[in-house]
Specification:
CATH class: Alpha Beta
Number of helices: 13
Bound molecules: beta-D-glucopyranose
Structural class: alpha/beta
Strand order of the largest sheet: 2-3-4-5-8-9-10-11
Order of helices and strands: EEHHHEHHEHHEHEEHEHEHEHEEEHE
Number of domains: 1
């Protein structure tokens, strides 16, 4: 048995996102979509808005030393340009609760959901969206920087634009003609029949993608102007495209990696102090291997994170694995998935990638977007009828790794 030891100070923890766990949010685009019957309702979710201390006690008891959370834009800026100090106060209490338990906070300033005033007026289709976004990001960072060092402006911009303007499964439900046959991301299982189909959406897709680039870059500048010491990055989902020996498949994989990962990253990397990697999905063109499946029907292939991390090496920035995890209600594969992920992170570090932490997705079972509350990603199971928390066995396997700062392989 070999011990794979991690650098001292390595961060171990789990991640959540505001809308998926907090509950009681009615003034964003997802809540509106739920009222219109386009996505499942989120309701009280895990009541994490009220129960965060209990949840952080659990994280601490599981050996975590960090936690990734997001700020709900609709709470902070419920009306355009008007910021709610009481909600800032709430998040300050949340950060204090983390720090009191020795959990280093990592904030994602925006994780998919938009305040209604913004989405109804066009959201990221608005020409001035980068300015609006940067103002919000700078405001949040200015109010919280004394309690937190690590900030990411946005989570998975390519997933956001692809589900919203290509697959039509997420707000604003716009899709490309023929997209059913060209599944480029796999969050959410069904194509929403109410989504608007049109060629114009291809143009909108490209322009929203570029506006997200500009929004991140503008936010970085605005934050740095106000808080030069804040560490600012972006969270990027890498879908790993690979191929068998067939040259056509090889070209396909090459193109898709450029399209999905490098195109966006190369446009924001100059304004990233660090990079957050979310890894879930891979696609190997020409591959006949039959994979075990998660409850999301995604291939179980944690090893792909090795290559995903090596892909980020070219940017020469510190990397946090800001998400990697499985939907696994029976807790059948989670422990093995975590161990493989950790082993790959260790391999990447040994091969020159400056990985500084791993945040398992997710601390709690939660609202899995268009798939509702069905999929269970949590280290902690939630009984939604009683809000009872139950720690899964796999969480203790992860605890051993976190506490030992090592994997015994
Ligand atoms: C997102 C999370 C989501 C998870 C599992 C990531 O795409 O950041 O919000 O729940 O993957 O699908």
């Amino acid at each position: 048995m070999a011990e794979k030891r991690f650098p001292s100070g390595f961060k171990w923890g789990a991640a959540t996102a505001s809308y998926q766990v907090e509950g009681g949010i009615e003034n964003n685009d997802w809540a509106e979509a739920a009222r219109e019957g386009k996505v499942p309702p989120c309701g009280r979710a895990c009541e994490h808005y009220e129960r965060y201390e209990e949840d952080f006690d659990i994280a601490k008891s599981l050996g975590h030393n960090c936690h990734r959370l997001s700020i709900e834009w609709a709470r902070i800026e419920p009306v355009e340009g008007r910021f709610d100090e009481r909600e800032i106060e709430h998040y300050r209490k949340v950060l204090l609760a983390l720090r009191a338990r020795g959990l280093e906070p990592f904030i994602t300033i925006w994780h998919f959901t938009l305040p209604l005033w913004f989405s109804r007026s066009g959201g990221f289709e608005r020409e001035d969206a980068p300015r609006i976004f940067a103002r919000y990001c700078a405001y949040v960072t200015g109010k919280l920087e004394d309690l937190c060092v690590h900030f990411s402006t946005m989570n998975e911009p390519m997933v956001f634009v692809s589900n919203g303007w290509a697959r039509g499964t997420w707000p604003p439900f716009k899709k490309w003609p023929g997209i059913e046959y060209a599944s480029i991301t796999t969050s959410g299982r069904t194509i929403n029949p109410q989504s608007k189909l049109g060629f114009g959406n291809i143009i909108r897709y490209v322009s929203v993608m570029h506006r997200l680039v500009r929004a991140h870059n503008a936010a970085y500048d605005a934050i740095k102007k106000m808080c030069p010491d804040a560490e600012v990055g972006i969270v990027k989902q890498v879908i790993l495209y690979q191929a068998n020996a067939n040259p056509i498949n090889w070209i396909l994989a090459w193109v898709m990696n450029r399209f999905w990962t490098y195109y966006f990253m190369s446009r924001v990397i100059a304004k990233c102090d660090v990079v957050g990697l979310n890894y879930y999905l891979h696609k190997k063109f020409g591959d006949r291997r039959v994979y075990d499946k998660t409850d999301m029907d995604w291939d179980v292939f944690p090893e792909g994170i090795c290559t995903a991390l090596m892909m980020l090496k070219r940017y020469k920035k510190p990397v946090y694995v800001s998400e990697a995890g499985v939907a696994d209600a029976e807790d059948r594969i989670r422990a093995g998935y975590i161990r493989s992920t950790v082993k790959c992170i260790h391999f990447a570090i040994e091969n020159g990638v400056d990985v500084r932490g791993y945040m398992y997705w997710s601390l709690l079972d939660n609202y899995e977007w268009a798939s509702g509350f069905g999929p269970r990603f949590g280290l902690v199971e939630i009984d939604y009828s009683t809000q009872e928390r139950r720690i899964r066995e796999s969480a203790y396997v992860y605890k051993g790794i976190c506490e030992g700062n090592a994997l015994i392989d």
